[in-house]
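Workshop exercise sheet. Pairs work together: one partner reads the sequence aloud, the other fills in the structure field after running the prediction. Swap roles for the next sheet.
Pair: D.N. / O.F.
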Amino acid sequence: MRIALKLIALVLVLVACSTKKSQIQNVVHLNSRIEGDQFIDSLISNGSDSLIAYYSGCSDCSRNFNRLYAIYWYSEGQWNLRKFTSKARYQTLKDYEPPMSYLMANRKSIADSSLRSPNYVLSAYAFELIRIQFENQSIEYRIKDYERLGNEDHPKVLLIDQLRKSLNEIPTEKWKS
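Structure field:
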């Protein structure tokens, strides 16, 4: 019995020692918010004055929540798009335009209006953040998931919905990390 246990222990040690390091995979969690903000700062410092950023985040959520940051910017006559998530930095896609017609038609109300506030506050919630930069105008706002109720037809909410829809329509195979 003792010999059998020693033999099993020896086999386990040999199996463990023979595992190559290349078979072990380390998971890296990126902070897509920091990555995206740094990318936006570099675009602005390099002279880009037209950009729209969409961030989907979560307050007090688990670490496994995949935070998405998508950034559209206009350069050399075309729109470009770059995506960051908690798992990867993706290469730039060309000729994917954000919902510009909606944004331009509703720019003033998006910049100047406020959402109706709910009668309650949650401590853990998903939220979406929009950052818009055009020439000398800068717009930034954040909508918590529970603030959408009663504001479904608000221009700020509709812009978020259109941005999310346009991002979801891009085929997965187009994104290369």
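Discussion prompt: Residues 50 and 74 are 6 Å apart (CA to CA). What would you look at next?
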